[in-house]
Give the backbone structure.
Amino acid sequence: AQSVTQPDIHITVSEGASLELRCNYSYGATPYLFWYVQSPGQGLQLLLKYFSGDTLVQGIKGFEAEFKRSQSSFNLRKPSVHWSDAAEYFCAVERVAGGGNKLTFGTGTQLKVEL
Amino acid sequence: GAVVSQHPSWVICKSGTSVKIECRSLDFQATTMFWYRQFPKQSLMLMATSNEGSKATYEQGVEKDKFLINHASLTLSTLTVTSAHPEDSSFYICSARVLPASGLSQETQYFGPGTRLLVL
């Protein structure tokens, strides 16, 4: 069965510092991987996605993620965090299921940015 | 583009009443919509997959008679929580799948802002 693990429940970084959010997945086939961000009171916004090709994926808001098949990881990175990046971040894997492809989400990482 | 709206954004109701939540794709057609439930500080759990013109597919453990889903058009899906009880209080989120115009097999789900339900 597919699963997504986000080992860090909370992360605190200083504004301007670099950021890496970890995501590990378990899936039998080639995964489709996603990172979403959820701000308080708002819906999930897609940051980036990986389907195939270049393993380093660029997303919006200066985020990037690298797919490493050997480590079953898809970590999200940002070189310099802004205070507005404080939010909940979810990693997800798309699985093929009856009725169409479906997303399985990790438990999320809450990012706090210190000024 | 690819905006999904939900109405209402929040609702408070008495125990035993039914509540309907609407999910609309505003600038695209969505053959498939998804309904999720999110408890505080937890992840999104898929409840059901809604395909236009057909019956919804429910995830294991989700009561189909409790959570009625209708996908009457390519831009609207509704979730009705019937005979709501306090344990149904949660954040309900819908998403719609966009099929890229290029015809590629990759798909992306776009999420609505969510509906917070509080059952008293």
